Amino acid sequence: MVNMSGQTSSAGQRIVLHADMDCFYAAVEMHDRPEIAGKPVIVGADPLGGAGRGVVSTCSYEARVFGVKSAMPIGQAYRLCPDAVYLRPDMAKYAAVSAEIMGIFKSTGCRVQQVSIDEAFIDASPVGSFAAARDLAVRLKQEIRDRVGITCSFGVAPSKIVAKIASDYQKPDGLTVVTPEEVPAFLAPLSVRKIPGIGGKTGAQLEALGITTIGELATCDIQRLVGAFGRSAGLLREAALGHDESEVVERDGVKSISKETTFAHDTDDPDEVAATMELLVTEVARALADEALYFKTVTVRVRYTGFVSKTKAKSLLHYHNDEAAIRSSAGELLRELWDGKPIRRLGLRLSGFRKQDAGQQTLF
Question: Which among 119, 182, 283, 323 is annotated as catalytic?
Fold first, then answer.
């Protein structure tokens, strides 16, 4: 547990907490099934019954020792760790646990922005100091452990981006406090890939320029960055400096949930397309659980080489909140849409929502 200076914040100083549950799905399963606690646990597709298709939703730290990671093809995970406990996701259960945790956060009276089923930002500015914010994080960690039985890592910082980086700094069960004065020194030695939103492609581009740490990105000549990244250069520089003025905002109701991916190369490989659709199904199911919603309409969009797009939707007879219903409908629509030609982009959207209430969460 890292606690830096804990100095009192100046008047009007923003203090943001970022809470991130540790290997959330796997942690919930291990809590409910004590006999698998301490074992490699992988939540995702069936590595055998699904012919090795699909992806890892999440895995325990014991599984990560073998090189298993989230979003990894399930067949690859099975080759790395065949003796792991493999479980299908139970999104309704995870949504109920998530709702209880978010209730704990909201009981503080601070503004809470849930950003996924297992993470949230909390505006702790009203507590008045970073020392008091640290104490709040300690109390929330203990309350989650006592009531839900899992661990959570916290980052405390003057901005959302630094708080998110800090929450990952000492996982699992970590707590890292970064005051405004400590932001440059904290960020400087970290890999540029620790910045939220920098994926493999951008990370590789930065590394090709000789920029491997956040500190190097923060001090790089801006014209050099503009030459490589265009308009995104300024955003990269601001992120490296830890600047993020975005507020912690409680979200309004959503009208649709959509995810899409662009292939590195146009593909007509059925296995690659099926694995990508499985990943999209997992992502929209997680987002659906985040919002505690039922859906009624599924839409699939395929963009071919040459930017020709086809879209097809299906409205179900009843409202659903389970991943199996998404998978079945998405697979049916994809089979109707795809003619075997190379695909550039694949998208999946849910709409026609109804909010779950407490009774519905228990029932389903």
Answer: 119
